[in-house]
Fold each of these.
Amino acid sequence: MKTFAELNFPGRLIAVEGLDGSGKSTQIYLLKRWLEAEGIKVYFSEWNSSELVKSATSKGKKRELLTPTTFSLIHCTDFADRYERHLLPLLRAGYVVLCDRYAFTAFARDTVRGCPPDWVRGNYSFAALPDITFFFKTDLEVSLNRILEGRPKLKFFEAGMDLRLSTDPYESFRIFQGRILEQYVTMSGEFNFVVMDANENVEKQQVLVRKIVGEKIDLKKFRRRSPLPLPPAFQPPEVKEQEEDLAAV
Amino acid sequence: MSATNGKKNGRRFFGHGIPRVKVEDLAGKLIVVEGADGSGRSTQIARLVDWLETGGHPTVQVGLKRSTLVSKELEKAQEGNILSRTTLSLFYATDFADQLENIILPALKAGFIVLADRYIYTLMARDMVRGMDEGWLKNLYGIAVKPDAVFYISVQPQELVQRNLAKSATLDYWESGMDLGLSRDMFDSFLKYQTGMQGAFRKLQKTYGFTIVDGNRPVGSITKELRKKIRLVLAEKEITESD
């Protein structure tokens, strides 16, 4: 697997990975705000699945139809859909794309569920590697406490209940998250993660994130040029509006 | 892993298989019939089921796009042709895996004869024609259990066109490979696509060694050939059972 830069894509992809409650979403949001203010062509991928794949995934989850194998495959399908429909065009167009989680989430989760690591990595091998992957590493207790403090209702698969680790969802979640953390740590070297100390203060972490992004990516190449020309005048006005709406999404 | 090694009954997975499933427990038989629409595939399967059940063998049928998990969504995806090729390929793999784990493996474990109206070979051939990497497909379908017999009913594309038109007076969008843009003319595209599919099957045959059945013959003589070969598979079953 190669990075987007190594594959000569005009765009760059930055991913954040880590346990729920590691603060990664906050960090990538703050990174996005900075890049926007710098006038960079940036896109934050919120992973909008297409309706069809979403419908199959939620049915499988609600009715607990998924096995480790089908869980892995349906998420890989979903990833492929976003990747081909969403990420690739943006990366071809020279965007800096920010992803809250990437294929590594699947590598960790599916391996913990018992799928062979090579099989999972092979299935995702159509995707290029991010140019930077930040791994927000917290102590297990810190992220568990952040998530479990409010005693949220944990979903069946989210808590890893399918693994029969414990009949108590909270206990199951703790064990499951612990195993996922181990996987992340193992992958750190394999995929060249930038390991962030996520127990550190949020502002300090963001300073470091911005510094690393600035060092690894020549940001001035990704500046937005002048606004796009308007569509040709002969088009009816309704169509113009629609196109503008689409461009704003 | 020991799961990939050959066992007494020759049962094995193509790759690592399915977590926590032991191949040696899969006592039944898996018989696959492959072939394009109009090859007589479904007719032959119906006849085989009749014959086997009359002979006292419990059977189960599986096929493409029949899973509880994603069959409806796959149907819709095809109607609109909105998924890109990797996505569609993985969606089909999900459909296959769901049936593998929920129907094929349990039935084999219970000693049933599973008749598959197409298996991973059609899925792989379709993707190969669409330029997907063979190594990637091989890894993906490493979950599949190796069948006891695979028959590919081969019919010349020119003959397939005639049969499809005689049956429904139209050609199917996907069976004509219209998504590939081989030709804007559906008739032309169908011939090109089916020729490509035959090429892919011949390539797969070299790797997986299945039986190519000449489908340009009367229904009855094809049935005869299939029965003859399946009898051998069943005889082997009885031998292993009486051990």
Amino acid sequence: MKHDAPLPCPPPEPLAVTGRAGRWLWAAYGLLMALGLAVYAAAPRVTETPARVGTRAAPEAANLAHVAQGARVVASSFMMNAHHHPLYLIDGEARPSPMEKWVAAADDAAPWIEVRLARRARLEALVLELAGAHGEPVTTNMANYEVACVDEGRVVASFDVVGNLDDRPRTALGGCEADAVRVRFSVGPERTPQALVRVFEARVLGAWL
Amino acid sequence: MSVAPTTPVEPQTGATPTPTPAKASLGLWLLGLMAAGLVVRAWYTSLQGGLHYPDAIFQYLEPPWAMMHGDGWMPWEFVRGARNWLIPWHYGALMGLGDLFGLRGMDLYHLLWAHNVLLSLAIIPAGYRLGRAMGRGDGRLGLLVAGAFALFPTFGVFAPHTLSEGHALVFTAWAYALWMEQVVWPGAAGGRRRAFAIGALLGGVFIARVSLAVFLPLVLLDYLGRRRWAHLAAGSAGFLAAMAVLGLSDWVAWGTPFQSIIEYVKFNWVEGGAARLEVKPRGWYWETLFLERLGAATWLVVAANAAALWRHWRMVLAWVLPLVALSALGIKQERFLLTIWPFVLAGMVGGLWELSRWVPRARWAPAAVAVALVCAFNVAGLRSMEQLRWKAGVFAAQDWIGRQGTATGVLHEAETHIHGGKTLLGEAVPMVRYRSALRGHRLFNFVIAESERLTKGLGRDRHWRQAATFEQGVVVFERVDGWTARAPDAPTP
């Protein structure tokens, strides 16, 4: 007989893992993975910095948006590879390096940030430090954006900023009572100076309620 | 192997009767081998810590973590779109399950490692079926091959790691096992369905790593050579189905079907990018995989495979062809050839099985002794493997910092991609490489120091206190005047 002549049929399976029970096992595994994938897909996909309890006084008492005041930031995205983390927005650093700014991801068509305060406050103003404030071309300063006071997830007041040229634009918030401030930026077309949002600092001035 | 009770051989037209242990006895042996395989894998997992390959973190864990939690560090492949998301999504699903149970940091890693260890056990039944087909229905050869797959230490070392090679190993072992069964029992029911599964599994191998396409031609040529047109058509359909999944996933992830393949080809062949990465000499695989990892047992493996050429030439070609093909590529890493080991072992066992025809009462013994010898040499050979606890101290430090709940920023001395990533830290805070300009920045309230110089420097600095120490001289310093600092006299954990 030729040594590799075909045989009629394989012997039966000796172990359940390769038989019917195995198929049940893989089916259960598939269901488990589907559940995990559903949790993965349902994740909000935003950057949310953790809440911290400050033990030192913030450098500016009126700035409620400081990590030492217990503030945190939620951002639609950030440029991860260059480490432009949104937490730099509320670090109160007076002379930041070029890295220490929030830059939205290049493919984020509608970037936004929300500075969440430790508790409700009467808000007087939002001051942003844009790219021009720390030596980058003033043309990269964001010209158009919308600022909103947010209280328990609801927008209680909003303000449009159009045609800004300032490095440190101040937006009056009219004493709104809120626990967060949201900023939605209008980015420019690709490869233009305003295609990327670059913000060094976000200060929310006001007083705790 | 005292599986003495043998079932009467089924009358098979033209077939030589082969003694086969009873089904129940075989099942027990196979379960025992799987338990032994689990022990080997668990043992090697317990020995390891830290970074195996940076890709294990930054190509398969960090991207899904970053998508899920909005924080991480993406390697260039995921910025450019040169990788598909199928395996990262698989880990994303496991992260989703981990999230349900609140697993973070090292606990999450342990879940992933446990999953991969269990997944890698799937090659053991594949080994049984491969060996049984090589033995033309003899379950003893099946058990010998399964035993080799269970006990081979290299599989134990690689088992927990989140590399695409883990998936590729399972896919290849099963694809070739099913193919060998098809060679031996071509008339068995479901031939086309099986061929479809083989094609789909080989497609999975290609998806896991494009260069592992070197495992395709042997099956293709075999179908052509034996004029199995229906199997060839069904196998091609299976492969195309896998490619359709790849195309669809690329479309979802990158916006263009087959973007990952297009970018892979562009980078490696059009731009010559592969030549800039870890180019090693042609003989590197032979020297590292065989001579270094197996020592003198290399010659036993080679001789036994030579003896297997007459009856088990497919198994020999199953590892020789990929070895030759991948040796021709400039970029080489040990993990890329993990998938050849099953066939090196199967070839060796098959060769010794044929040589030991003259000891019919204990025909299994020479191959079993050879498997034990090769495993013993492999244990010794793996001691020189640098990646067993590479950066284990840094990993432990990152996990520890993440658990403190006070971090606002972390500085580390290691390169950007030589640590456990944000996945391990589990906190959405800046984590960047240490430089002196950042030392005064209050946001960075933890430093992971590895060098003696930095450890001494921070030890003398009144703004920092030593908070914890880990293996390999890794010291975590905590800023005493950070925004969320603990009191300077707080006890060191």
